Amino acid sequence: MKTYFRLLSFAKPIEKFAIPYILFTIVAVVFGTLNLALVAPCLRRCLSRKRWKQFPFQFF
């Protein structure tokens, strides 16, 4: 246990960066999830076979 507390004493200077790091990590996860959630319907619409039927020629 003494070793553990000794290691924690070295982490004291990092303490001021830990809270913003956690906050910004959570914000990044939320925005990344929203990004994927909003791109998925666009991709589904762009890549649907129904959409390609309106062209006089076939791509695939």
Write up what this structure looks like.
- The chain is mainly alpha-helical and 60 residues long.
- The chain is built from three helices and no strands.
- The longest helix is centred in the middle third of the chain and has 32 residues.
- It is rod-shaped, with a radius of gyration of 25 Å.
- The N and C termini lie far apart (65 Å).
- 0% of the residues are buried.
- The model has no long low-confidence stretch (mean pLDDT 81).
Task: For the record, give the distance between the C-alpha atoms at the N and C termini, rounded to a whole number.
Answer: 65 Å
Strands, total number: 0
Number of helices: 3
The averaged pLDDT comes out at 81
Helix and strand composition category: mainly alpha
Task: Provide the low-confidence segments as ranges.
Answer: none
Characterize the largest beta sheet: strand count, sense, and whether it forms a barrel.
none
Shape: rod-shaped
Helix content: over 70%
As a whole number of angstroms, the C-alpha radius of gyration is 25 Å
Q: Can you write the helix and strand succession as a string?
A: HHH
Q: Approximately what portion of the residues adopt beta-strand conformation? A: under 5%
